[in-house]
Specification:
By secondary structure, the chain is α+β, with helices and mostly antiparallel strands. The protein contains seven helices and eleven strands.
Length: 267
């Protein structure tokens, strides 16, 4: 699933070609792609809307229109393309938006997990999300206090989008390794110094992920190169870049997890 850096990369790539275009029509090929509204209302409401901005909130793409926000969550296999309007939709294209200037925005989703919202009230979808880790709200002090307000294992808590927005399996494993924290450690045992190290590590891996256009580790998301710089994720059996100990993989909170057992000891 694309995480914050991948979704940010997609938003930045789409933005120059989408802003200022008008949506002429919508071709919905699978009705359950829409979370809201109904297919009929979606086609009616989106027609004639001008695209004002393209951004991101957590793992959601946020396309701002005249009267609505078009929110898209790619989930496991979703992807977005801009094509000429003359090109026909393909087998796994679930939604096509015909735009002015002979362009179309295509939502392709092989596994059908992705969802689209057209809403005048984006906070109804995004309101429960935690803070963005690359904003000023996310400070070491905030992180320590938030961790101590919970009694949960570190990794599942960091993956909880209502706690902190945008982190997924890859960047959580990478950040915890840099901070030398075990993913199974209790959140309320993290010291102020450890919280500061984790805060710095989270911001570091996300910025580096964005700089490298995200990570391309399967056939769904393409174009990134952060996978060539992983420290622990997907590196089971390979040496830790810090101490040389073999990386191990195990399960925490039902998620495959990669650590250096020497650098990230559970104390």
């Amino acid at each position: 699933m694309p995480e914050l850096p991948e979704v940010e990369t997609i938003a930045r790539k789409l933005k120059p070609d989408l802003i200022g275009r008008t949506i002429l029509s919508a071709d919905l090929r699978w009705s359950r792609t829409l979370a809201t509204p109904s297919p009929r209302k979606f086609r009616e409401k989106i027609k004639g809307q001008k695209i004002l901005d393209v951004g991101r909130r957590a793992k959601y793409l946020n396309i701002q229109l005249d009267d609505f926000n078009l929110l898209i969550h790619l989930r496991m296999s979703g992807d977005l393309f801009i094509k000429n309007s003359t090109i026909q939709l393909e087998k796994h294209d679930r939604l096509g938006l015909k735009l002015s200037g002979n362009r179309s925005l295509i939502f392709n989703d092989t596994r059908k997990f992705g969802r689209v919202w057209l809403t005048p009230h984006p906070e109804e979808v995004l309101g429960r999300l935690g803070p963005e880790p690359l904003t000023r709200v996310f400070t070491p002090q905030w992180l320590r206090n938030a961790l101590h307000n919970k009694h949960r294992q570190l990794k599942p808590l960091l993956l909880d989008q209502t706690f902190l927005a945008g982190l997924g399996n890859i960047y959580t494993d990478e950040a915890l390794n840099i901070a030398k924290l075990h993913p199974g450690a209790a959140s309320d045992t993290v010291t102020a110094k450890q919280a500061e190290a984790l805060h710095e590590a989270i911001r570091k891996v996300l910025k580096e992920g964005i700089r490298r256009n995200g990570a391309s580790i399967d056939w769904v998301y393409r174009g990134g190169e952060f996978q060539n710089h992983f420290r622990v994720y997907d590196r089971e059996g390979k040496p830790c870049p810090t101490c040389g100990t073999e990386i191990v993989r195990f399960v925490v909170g039902q998620r495959g997890t990669h650590i250096c057992p020497n650098c990230q000891r559970l104390r």
